[in-house]
Design brief:
Blueprint: H1 4-10, H2 15-27, H3 38-47, H4 52-78, H5 87-99, H6 103-116, H7 121-133, H8 140-151, H9 154-171, E1 178-180, E2 183-185, E3 192-197, E4 202-209, E5 212-224, E6 241-244, E7 262-264, H10 270-274, E8 283-285, E9 297-299, E10 303-305, H11 307-316, E11 323-327, E12 332-334, H12 335-358, H13 361-365, E13 368-376, H14 386-394, E14 399-410, E15 414-424, E16 431-440, E17 443-452
Parallel strand pairs: 3-11, 5-9, 8-10, 13-17
Antiparallel strand pairs: 1-12, 2-14, 3-4, 4-5, 5-10, 6-11, 7-8, 14-15, 15-16, 16-17
Amino acid sequence: MAHPQGNRRRLTPGAGALAAMLLAASLGLPASAAPASSQGAAKAKAAAPAGAPGKAKAKKTKARSQASRPTRKAAAAAAPIQAAGNAEARLIAVYELFGRGQSREALAKARELVRAYPHFQLAQLVYGDLLAAQVPPTHALSDTANIARLRGDPALADLHEESRRRLQALRDRPPPGTVPSQFLALSARSRHAIAVDASRSRLYLLENGPQGLRVVADYYISVGKAGIDKQVEGDARTPLGVYHVTSNLDPRSLRDFYGAGALPINYPNAYDQRRGRTGSGIWLHGTPPQQYARAPLASDGCVVMANPDLRQLVRRVQVGATPVVIAQRLEWIEAPRARTEAENFDRALMAWRDARHRGDADRLAQFYLPDFQQRKSGPGKAGNSPQKEELAYGNGRNIQLKDISYLRWKDQDDTMVATFGEVAEGEKKGRLRRQYWLRQHSEWKLFYEDVLG
């Protein structure tokens, strides 16, 4: 939409009624429960019969309302949705005011929001519809026709879906004390982690502190035009899996299309390649300057964020050390369960280390799949197999593993990405290893490894 003042003249009757339906649906209220204007609410209140039955009904309504409040407050306390000055938080305040029947207050907040963010299309739509809602429609038939016409507009459908997903993410907060099921253990070297829930168009930023991971912010995002589960180059899908940020691209080196910057991730990873998946250039990036946010399904496969949100994210990311999980739907599990699953895998990793230490070639060989591959940047003897080099390196030496992270990914397979540093006795400088393991029946097997240093 154009400048806020222009909306008043161009909006057609019925647009306000559409806003009532859209906002009511977003808030999970029946359409009749969302008043079109404060004037209408006042008339309804005046028309209510006096007496004990009315009071009793009001008390029941109040009791139901109060009964529902603790759940919402507890959920919100579990993971804040961002700072109060954030554009999305301000839009949600508009929704909530409207849902409580305070449409004039909602209109005032919406006006402030579109002035601050004139390129926020969803906010412009809500503001324009709230303006129209102040004037009762003169012809019901005209309302019906206009609503049907507007519903058929693909751009409006995208904005409606964006609205729905933003509000869904507000209602369905991660429970307190939980983490995404993929994060079983995270090294203190990784100060933050990123988890994307495609079903909610949501990116969660988690901080890794002394007490473990906790959500510190979350943001609306867009994914591929064709959805998720990328298979091949050019399919306009966003990949699913566990990845790491590989670089931080300077926005001055990018086209305006990418907005405030870009954070490439390591798609396709070793597991993707094992399954024959192709493609490249999967980034977390911003939006063009003239666009605040994109539709939920809008990119060529990247994860796209509003520029103010991306700038916040970029300040927290560590290249190479920030893991990124992209899931169709995140499962949030309690921290003790994550620790238990980490300990179960930890036994396999320690047994692999101990086989090297003892020089047990037969036992060590049991940990590798026949098609195991290794990429190594450090020294090694030409022609030696990875297992022979492991035996030569570890035989009889005490090797300390440190800064261990475990990221688990389950689809048709059960895989683990283990990242750790190791320092052998007698060496001052260690090396970093990232291993990809596949669970076969009850045993974990190595199928790929990166060795740095």
